[in-house]
Request: fold
Amino acid sequence: MSPVAPSADVPAAAATEAPQAIETTTPDGAVEASPVANEAAATAPASPAPSARALLKQFQQQFKAFRDCLPLSIGIDKQIIARMPGIERKAMRAALGIHTGSLRYLRAMEKATVRYDLDGAAGAEVTETHRTHAKDTLQLRLKKEADRKKAERDAEKVEREAAQAAEADKLRQEKLLQLASKFSRS
Reply:
């Protein structure tokens, strides 16, 4: 950000974003520097912003729409900001993404007809496009999970077969050694 242009009443040193001191002129013409106390920084140390999951848990405790996993109204982020003005927007968006991407929410959206505000009051209708998107996303997610589990089972099967083949090879080698020792000329 660029510094604010100084006005006639404020000296140039005080026009920057975080002034350290303000120069004032006493009645006799002497210039004094008075320290500026940044009370917000002095009284409240910067606390780390809550994680998206912690924020989502807070939303679930505070708001009926999150607690009951109701389809959220369009622009719910603006409602949250209005109720929680100090919220970090990046964390809020991440929390909303986690919530709206959950299987429970997608299942609710798939069958929903109405959207809800934070208090659980009915609002606008859920469009067929949004229901279809939820259904497609849900199917894709479930297909990916099924494919992942199938790949795990296949990998376990391959490992099991490899272990059985190694055991069979070991037994074959032992039998060959027994035969070789039995028929060898000593």
Notes: The CA atoms of residues 76 and 131 lie 18 Å apart. The longest helix spans residues 128-183. The beta strands are 21-25, 31-35, 114-116, 122-125. The radius of gyration is 34 Å.
